[in-house]
């Protein structure tokens, strides 16, 4: 408990007068010079409430004591009232620069007790406030750490949900599990280029991670499409193609059925990609005929990645196009109309798409070497 008054003065009668005035309210300890004062501060630094300090003393004067208190950061926990008969402005300024709280003029008067009490109460309140702030800071840090851990667990949960749903798609042998991996890779490459060139889309690193992860679900709705249509080796009839196009809506419905299980951002982006990855910039896509920037950027990115992989990959109903052919088909609008900004980004990452395609299409034994 801070309740001790330390009186530092080389004149004994001054120490006696001050002690007599304050001893009814505070325990008193005394020092006849600065060196003894520093020793007492070291010993009682958690108990001293205020220091009454004379400036003019032999050997180790009041200024030296103040400098030591500043060096050891005691000046912030032990307020100092200077005992002085001098009233020079430069003396007061030097003392204030060294952290002195107030001045007590000699001879001492009846106001001394009140002034000491005010200083003690002020510092006590400040220290209590600082302790509360420190406690609250520690609490907030713990809470923040817990929130970060919860966010990380939620992120892992989101990823697991997406991986599970992606596995469901693969199990139907729709195009192969490698298709999902390639779409994720193409989506990341294009998204990172768009992040550099078009900040207006707000593609932060975190949002890109969510889009890439959620791209696994772009065709989840195909689990509701009959095998006779889904795995048909030839061209679909108009009626069959109309049924195939419903995979965007059916996928949206699948995601609705698991609403509330995962993070809001993952939920939103997954719905956008699933429903809108076949929308086109000129409004001629499906299922809702969205036009221009009505199409979420997440769906625009995955739309290009999906079309590119479909073109360069062999399917039961077609042979693979070369990467150059696929590039020209997308740029020329033969696979639907894409945003000029998206096409600009796609042009810049052409080589990266081709490199990823070569890597993903290597025989499995070569990948593992």
What does this structure look like?
- The protein has about 375 residues and is α/β, with parallel strands linked by helices.
- The chain has 16 helices and five strands.
- A five-stranded parallel sheet has the order 2-1-3-4-5, sandwiched between helices.
- Strand 3, helix 3 and strand 4 (about 80-85) form a beta-alpha-beta unit.
- The longest helix has about 60 residues, at about 110-170.
- The two termini are about 70 Å apart.
- The model is unreliable at about 365-369 (pLDDT under 50).
Topology, pairings included?
Elements: E1 4-8, H1 12-22, E2 28-31, H2 34-44, E3 48-54, H3 62-71, E4 80-84, H4 89-97, E5 102-105, H5 112-171, H6 177-197, H7 205-214, H8 227-230, H9 238-245, H10 247-257, H11 264-276, H12 297-312, H13 323-331, H14 340-348, H15 350-360, H16 364-368
Parallel strand pairs: 1-2, 1-3, 3-4, 4-5
Helix pairs in contact: 2-3, 6-7, 6-12, 6-14, 6-15, 10-11, 11-12, 12-13
